[in-house]
Amino acid sequence: MISGPGLELPRNGASRLRFSLVLKKFFWHAYDHPGKLIAASLLSASLALTIMGLPLALVILARLGTELACYREIRVAQMFRMTWRRIARGAALVGIGVGGAFVILSGLVFYGSDRLHLPLLSLVLLGLTVWFGLAFAAWYSLWVPLAFRYEAPLLELGRAAGLLLLANPLASLLHLTSQLIIWLFGALTVVGLFLMSPGLSALLAAVFTRELIGVYEPGSIPEDEETRTLADFLRPWRM
Prior knowledge:
Structural class: mainly alpha
Helix content: 55-70%
C-alpha cells in the first residue's frame, strides 16, 4: 500500500468504483442547484478573461463543486469567501495548468506541421503528445479537487492524484470523456461556455474524486446517500 494524504492507495489493481453512480450523483446535484452552477460559471468565466482572475475563478469553482459533492449547503455569497492560502494554491495550480497546456499545444503544432522534416517520426511524436495531453488532463482534473479537499502540500497531492490515475485508468478515462462532452456541449452552444460548462465541469470532478476516494476509505460515504431514480425525475411530485 502507498500512503496518500488521508488515503491508502494500492500499487496495483482496479478500484470498485461504479462510474454510473458518479454520473447519477452528478446529475442530481446539477438538478438540485442549477442557479448556483450558473452563477459560478458566469462569474468564473468573467474572471477568466484576465490572467489575474484565473486563480479566483478556480477557487470559486472548486469550493462550489466540493461543497455540493458532499451534500453541504452553500450560498452564492459563500463562494466569495476565500483565504490567501487558497488563492495562492489556486495561482500555483493555474500556473501548472497553463504551463502544461502550452507545452502540449506547442508539441501538437510543432509535430503536426512536421518541423523535423521527418514525416514518420513526427507522426509518432504527435501521437505521443496527444496521449501525454490526455494523461495530463486526467491527472490535473484529479489534482485540483484534491488540492481543495486536503490541506496537504500540493506536491504530495499531485503525487496522490497520479497514483489514483494509475490505479484507476478506466474510471479516469470515463471521467475525462465526460468532461470533454461537457465542454464540447458548451462550445457548440457558445452560451454554455459561460453559463454551464465551468460549473458542471468542477462539479463532475469533485463528485468523481469524492467517490474514488470513498473506495479507499470504506464507510466514508453512506451507501444510501442518493436514493432517487429516473422515476423521480419523470414524476417529481413523488419526491
